[in-house]
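User: I'm curious what two different proteins look like when written out as structure tokens. Can you demonstrate?

Assistant: Sure. I'll show them one after the other, since each token string lines up with its own sequence. Here's the first protein:
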Amino acid sequence: MKLYFKQRLFSWFDSYDIYDYDTGDVVYTVEGQLAWGHCLHILDADGRHIATVKQRVLTFLPKFDLYLGDACIGTICKEFTIVRPLFTLDFNGWQVEGDFMGWEYAITDGQRQVAAISKELLHWTDTYVIDVADGRDGLCALMVVLAIDAEKCSRNS
């Protein structure tokens, strides 16, 4: 399963459309909410709320909770590093490994690659391709990518 993640050009809050890479159909819509820190609601193709990525406030380093429905299923944390970005996941035994700039990275479970993420450059908005090995991991991989993108946006503003 391949997802195409594209931020909307004109929106007040974080807003994204997530497409099936091969068909161009919208699979998910992400809508930001006015809140302290980032709060991203993920809707399915029919507009039903299915997941949330919510930044914890008042933490030393950025930390995001991942929710399926109302249940918190894990956390992703930015770690203090000098050389390259590093994120730790408390979720499914997953790990995030990336290059120096963080433009290309992978989510692994220790034995296999769950997803490969690459940012497409030369676009007006953030645009990523998320190549997920098992389609059942697509939504969870998307939540990890959203948290990392939100952290980068906070750092750059």
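Here's a second, unrelated protein for contrast:
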Amino acid sequence: MSFSSKILKWYGQNKRSLPWRNSIDPYRIWLSEIILQQTRVAQGTPYYLSFLEAFPTVDDMAKAKEEEVLKLWQGLGYYSRARNLHATAKIIVNEYNSVFPDSYNELLKLKGVGDYTASAISSICFNEAKAVVDGNVYRVLARYFGVDIPINSSKGIQYFKSLAQKVMDVEHIRDYNQAIMEFGAIQCSPKKPLCLHCPLSESCVALQKGLVGQLPVKIRKVKVRDRYFNYLVPIYKDEKGDVFTSLQKRNAKGIWQNLWEFPLLETSANMNLQEINTKYHDIFGDLGKVEILSYHDRPIVHKLSHQNLHTSFWILNTTVDIPFKVKVQNIEQYPVPVLIADFMKAFKF
């Protein structure tokens, strides 16, 4: 039995029941694939269902405001995916008359759609013979064939794509692509793969040579950067008794673009209370008599893929009207980074 036949047989016996699995609707497959990039299935599934409920069709998503899409996406991270999702929905509606392109090459033209996503949609929805290569596939192929070429090198990307095309089952491409990804997620997992009960064990090079834990190979390219965030959280009560704080939109490119946050002082190191007392004027101007409190004993370290955010929240109680003000009762309506969302849940305004 061939490599692809064993993968397909395993899939028939072990595949998970997932909400997008019995569909070949390109909108649903596209939505699931974008959500599952950099996201585990268990985490992504509730988001997928929420998006379908809010936007049953690509037209519904295209009509939505970007903030609605970002709010639903809140907590998934890599927010450029959400912005691209919304932009692509508009493109599908306006340039393709609400009909998804039915080929790999046309799908590649869409914003946020690369080789993997185009291969997944074209094969699952339109039965096009394009092999998918994601993290799970890299792992299965690298281990089974004993390939130590770094998967994130230009040579590795080309090599594994070519290898994936050679070993795929063309006649059953729709199921095969889902099968090899599922196999990598469950059977040939990154840690503690189930090698003893693997249908590929007899011919797996990595297993035979004791290289399972060393493959696939990945070059570490990204140097982690330390950044120091000081969020200023003003609290102001007007004559009517309404309580306000301040929120600003991150318009600059970079992390959390178009999400909202409290006014931010980014510095080269952690700040103390005295330093905050002299710097908050840069954002708010004169607030009169202000009581400043530190919300945490020490900064929270929020880790992203390429940077560590050393974050402090400073509470500014004031009797002077504040800029960028938002009613406290409305702040949950704004799409915010998970770091801000966690603070909002914990802090009692």
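A detail about the second structure: The chain is about 40% helix and 15% strand.
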